[in-house]
Amino acid sequence: MMNDPEVLEEKPQRSWTRLIPGIVVSLAAIIILLVQIDLNATWQAFQAIQIGPLLLASLVLIVAFVTRALSWRVLLQEQVPLKSAFSAEVIGYLLNTVLPFRLGEVGRALALGIRSPLTFWEIFPTVLIERIFDLGFLAAFLFSTLPFVVGADWATTAAFVAIGLVIAGFSVLFLMVRHPEWVQNIFGWVTNRWPSIKQFGEEKIDQFIRGLAVLRSPVRFLKVFFWLGVTWGLSVLWNTIILRTFYPNPSLLEACFIVGLAALGVAAPSTQGNLGVYEAAIVSAFIALSADPASGLAFALVTHGTYLLIIFVLGFLGLAQSGISLREIYTLAQNRPPAQQN
Question: Which residues contact 3 (CB under 8 A, 6 or more apart)?
Fold first, then answer.
């Protein structure tokens, strides 16, 4: 029965066991860094940071949050003010930092739904679509820069092929938006022999396609692409401003490679705030570039600390504006509303 106290008691226990892989990964990353990196050299590199570049980088990071909110507002078909989209976005980042299970993606949809006429299931698909675009940009960053880092003769050709594949991926996404019936037909043909999988998948695909419907306009699609492209560009910029202290005269390719590898690293299971894995990803990028890993760790600590500080400030300001607490959003996220039936 749904209200059986034993069932309700077991659910939190099963949920919290999901934290174990992330904790193990973070602890392993931290231990490796402590063992392999010269912490005295890291401290010396850390002391080289100057307040001017740090403040400038922080300002650029905040602007990047604004441009991401602009892209999200386009996905929401401009049905909410930019201020509300920005506030809900930074609340989501805050939730990802302090709560388990990456509930920030759910939490930002709930936070926006509290102060807008949109429902959770009208908002949440737009968050998923945004993540699909992010995966495309991440692939472009890594695939177009890694060959040059490796230094092979085929680097230029590989980079163009990689960029072509990313463009093809975005083209496929746009075709899915314009012709959703193709997706259902292909899925139905593939799963025709497995009725249970077919029924389950068709329901999920239908929800996803309804979310993609906001991009059926080519203009809207290009607006989202543009604003997220600007956001990723600003991400490279604010990192490069700080990077110059620890890695003199970095090229654009090197900066993009570091940002791309860091973004890939934080996608791995970890504790809240990506502790350890973010630093390990940055140090790995420095090693791949034949740079000083101690300086890489110092750079990682500065950028990570800057990001967390800004997220905490903006996130709690967003919570104050919405009049809701972290505990309330966590409870809502754990018991989010079921999908609406049409």
Answer: none
Q: List the domain boundaries for the chain.
A: 44-334
CA distance 71 to 125: 14
Closest CA to 117 of 78, 153, 156: 78
Cα separation of 254 and 250, whole Å? Answer: 6
Residue 67, both tokens: 């441009």
Closest by alpha carbon to 113, among 132, 126, 96? 126
pLDDT of residue 51: 93
**169 closest CA partner among 197, 143, 187:** 143
Q: What six digits make up the tokens of 127?
A: 């968050």
Amino acid at 243: L
* Closest listed residue to residue 120, CA positions, set 279, 336, 290: 336
Tell me, what's the pLDDT at 244?
93
The owner of tokens 């989202």 is 224
Which H or E run includes 163? helix 155-178
Q: What is the dihedral of CA 248, 254, 258, 259, to 10 degrees?
A: 110
pLDDT for position 263: 87
Long-range Cβ pairs for the range 14-21 (8 Å, 24+): 15/101, 16/100, 18/100, 18/101, 19/100, 19/101, 19/271, 21/269
What pLDDT, on the 0 to 100 scale, is given for residue 159? 64
Q: Mean pLDDT per 10-residue run, the chain (342 residues)?
A: 41 56 74 85 89 96 97 91 92 83 79 80 83 83 76 65 73 75 76 71 67 75 92 96 92 90 76 79 91 93 94 90 74 59 42
Nearest to 283 by CA among 29, 54, 57: 29
In angstroms, the CA 238 to CA 307 distance is 10
Ramachandran angles phi, psi of 276, nearest 5°: 90, -55
Which residues have CB under 8 Å from 104's CB, separation 6+?
A: 91, 92, 93, 94, 95, 96, 97
Question: Are 322 and 92 within 8 A, CB to CB?
Answer: no
